[in-house]
Give the backbone structure.
Amino acid sequence: MARFISAIIILSILLLVLLFTLLNAESVSIDYYFGRVEQPLALVLVVTLVAGAIIGLCSSIFVILSSRREVSQLRKSIKQTEQEVMNLRTIPIKDKH
């Protein structure tokens, strides 16, 4: 059932992309330092969206990696603290009365 729902969602997205492409078929000119290129508007928008997603992923990867490193260090600290507590619980109590 989950595969059927995901297939319907994927087909819906593909249909929306196809409609978007058909509605935005006119060409636009892109000027850059070395020249000028004529491309369909839909292609320009999709390439811009993908480039933005890649830039966003690259900029957030450092935050994600540092957070994972911190979580790993905190888990090690917890493990050491739990071991210390277990060691203290096994030491017999000496009463000085």
In short: The CA atoms of residues 14 and 89 lie 62 Å apart. The chain has one domain: 19-88. Residues 19-88 form one domain. The first strand starts at residue 27 and ends at 32.
